Amino acid sequence: MADERVLIDTSLLIDHLRRTKKDRTVFYQAARRYECVVSAITEFEFRAGSTAANHEFVAELLDLTPVLPLDSTCVSAAVTIYRDLRASNQLIALPDLLIAATAVAYQLPLLTLNLSHFERINSLKLLNTSNL
Description:
The protein is of the alpha/beta class. The chain has helices at about 10-20, 25-35, 40-50, 55-65, 70-85, 95-105, 115-120, and strands spanning about 5-10, 35-40, 65-70, 110. The protein has a single domain (about 5-130), classed as 5'-nuclease (Rossmann fold, 3-Layer(aba) Sandwich), CATH 3.40.50.1010. The chain is about 50% helix and about 10% strand. The chain has a four-stranded parallel β-sheet with strand order 3-2-1-4. The mean pLDDT is about 95.
């Protein structure tokens, strides 16, 4: 695992959960190359979306993945992102906005399978999943 930290989006965890060949997922490849962390929003989305059948897997995966809190710096970044997106009529879902704000506030690149929403945010550095 490299020293570089990346924030991973919920989409990577969901993809990893659903696939049978875990070693072929973007999350698996990212975890081999980076120190992967998640936002508190991703933790919420992933835990809330778990079922009785996968609850244990979800809990174990999140127990191994550091969670960054949503603090005042993140909120400030979120307000800026929200105002910029609203001004250009390109708002995204609030959870995605808060995940992006966490990446911006902690100065981390974001790794996601959902580029269509996140590429609208100029202050956000996105990692290309094809480079893993």
